[in-house]
Amino acid sequence: MATARNISRFWEWGRKIICVGRNYADHAKELKNAVPTEPILFLKPPSAYVKEGSPILVPLYTSDLHHEVELGVVIGKGGTSIPQADAMEHVAGYALCLDMTARDIQDQCKSKGLPWTMAKAFNTSCPVSEFIPKENIPDPSDVKLWLKVNDQLRQSGCTSQMIFSIPFLISYISDFITLEEGDLILTGTPKGVSAVQEHDELQAGIEDVLTMTFKVNRLEL
Ligand SMILES: O=C(O)/C=C/C(=O)CC(=O)C(=O)O
Ligand SMILES: [Mg+2]
């Protein structure tokens, strides 16, 4: 008999991870990019997930791995062409997420006009916290996020700074990618992204909600 899947373990479901890029003007500017007029999207595979207790692995081909702290939205009810007014009914909850990015590889991809897959979608590129039920974040448009590397504050931002809101993103994405229960949307990072090294400890948090900690290791051959 099939057992019911539990949304609080969404990372085990094998669903897609849809990421929004340059959704904070301060981050777009720090990397010398234009502020977008439409959402910029890319994907990570489910093999990108890593949970606390397991390390973030630096791919062998990068020497500039960056952290990006982001609010993740966990989809509870799937849909296509979801109206913005109904979008929040499709949210089961949230997760604190890191969009680990091989910045040197991303820069190479950008200059060659190639997709960002090697820079963004490698194993362990999506560290995630525990599932946060929707009720625990009554106003997702006013959530304070922070990230420290070895106890030094690197990122501090608020979802109120997002260019495209969560309801808008859900509606926009669902117009051409059907959203399914268990999908995760990464909503973009505020400024302060920087490089991490082997043996670093990353600590990130959502103010008044939760914190999470990850060690960085280099992938062994
Ligand atoms: O365009 C760039 O140089 C970099 C963009 C990103 O990495 C976008 C994000 O992932 C983000 O803004 O969160
Ligand atoms: Mg990102």
UniProtKB/TrEMBL annotation:
- Assigned keywords, A-Z: Metal-binding
Catalytic reaction list? oxaloacetate + H(+) = pyruvate + CO2; oxaloacetate = enol-oxaloacetate; 3-fumarylpyruvate + H2O = fumarate + pyruvate + H(+); acetylpyruvate + H2O = acetate + pyruvate + H(+)
Instruction: Tell me which Gene Ontology terms the entry assigns under biological process.
Output: carboxylic acid metabolic process
What EC number(s) does the entry state?
3.7.1.5, 4.1.1.112, 5.3.2.2
A molecular function (GO) held by this record is: acetylpyruvate hydrolase activity
Q: Where is the Fumarylacetoacetase-like C-terminal domain?
A: 16-216
Classification via Pfam families: FAA_hydrolase
For this record, an example GO cellular component is: mitochondrion
Family designation:
Belongs to the FAH family.
Q: What is this protein called?
A: Oxaloacetate tautomerase FAHD1, mitochondrial
